[in-house]
Amino acid sequence: MRSAVLETRPAALDPGREGRRAPARWLPASLIAVAALVGATAATAQVTVKAEEFQKADSPWDMAFLPDGTMFFTEKCKGLSVRLPSGKVNALLGVGDSKGYATVRNDLFCDGQAGVQGVAVDPNFATNRFVYVFASSKGPNRTYGGFNNIVMRMKVDAPLAAVSDISEIINDIGYKPAKSAHPFGGPGAHNGGRIRFNPGDGFLYVLTGDNHSGAGPQHPTRIIGKVLRVDRDGKAAAGNNPPAGFDKRIFAYGFRNPQGIAFRPGTNEGSMPFRVERDSLT
């Protein structure tokens, strides 16, 4: 006679019989023993991790690499820099009163979760020298209480020491300008901010937060709680196919605060990116 252990799930309902509890499940005692052994082994295993300092940074937010190991990286309240394979760091684009940067833009700022965030290298960087940055901007032309999040495209010079030809390819992304009663509800909250090129389709994906706006992620034209899919000029990518009346740049909508994205290795499926919100992975 095979011994077994009863597993109960008192809150479960039988999915095939509406309103009735699911029957208890019987698990073999051998399975319980194996699980206990694995748990005990994991509890006693020792792992040694060695961490070495690679690059000092103040509130680092994102990084993007060239094939030779050159690393572009952002610091939320400072700006965009690049670390060369030699270890030398060049400060390229700074926020407000930042010191030591080749270029400074006074409209760029940081507050709460907002600031200089995502950075992406163009797949054709070797020929066009383009780098893209998601950042928060203020000014009389901004549409959310004097603020917006923007995506800038810029050209990096050959020595990787300066940027030029800065263009705002997207300048209408939502921003939370004032404090609210939400937990951690200060200005700049739920700001999204990650940008990535899909190596499969060549388009730029831009992740935007809901700014603590319940209606925003479902709104057809407000760029809040959305994933945009655009070309190098910020124009809608072919095949986005949003619902009728929606902004053509929208690839997906209904998000809380997406801050990470990656694509399936090997296939780089553009229709099934992995995304990360602050409290979930999908």
Polypeptide structure, described:
The protein is mainly beta and 282 residues long. It has a single domain (60-281), classed as 6 Propeller (Neuraminidase). The protein is 7% helix and 33% strand. The protein is built from two helices and 18 strands. A five-stranded mixed beta sheet has the order 3-4-5-6-7, with no helix packed on it. A hairpin with a 5-residue loop joins strand 5 (79-83) and strand 6 (89-95). The longest helix is centred in the N-terminal third of the chain and has 16 residues, at 29-44. It is globular and about 50 Å long.
Provide the low-confidence segments as ranges.
1-27, 29-34
Say what the CATH topology is.
Neuraminidase
What distance lies between the first and last C-alpha atoms, to the nearest angstrom? Answer: 43 Å
Identify the strand order in the major beta sheet: 3-4-5-6-7
The global form is globular
Structural class: mainly beta
Helical element count?
2
For the biggest sheet, the summary is:
5 strands, mixed
Number of strands: 18
* Strand content range: 25-35%
Q: Helix fraction?
A: under 10%
Task: Tag the structure with descriptive keywords.
Neuraminidase, about 5% helix, mainly beta, 4-stranded antiparallel sheet, 18 strands, about 280 residues
How do the helices and strands line up, and which of them pair or pack?
Blueprint (H helix, E strand, L loop, with lengths): L3 E4 L17 E4 H16 L15 E6 L5 E5 L3 E5 L5 E7 L7 E3 L13 E3 L3 H4 L1 E9 L8 E10 L6 E11 L21 E3 L6 E4 L18 E5 L19 E4 L4 E5 L11 E4 L2 E2 L1
Parallel strand pairs: 6-7
Antiparallel strand pairs: 1-2, 3-4, 4-5, 5-6, 8-9, 9-10, 10-11, 12-13, 13-14, 14-15, 16-17, 17-18
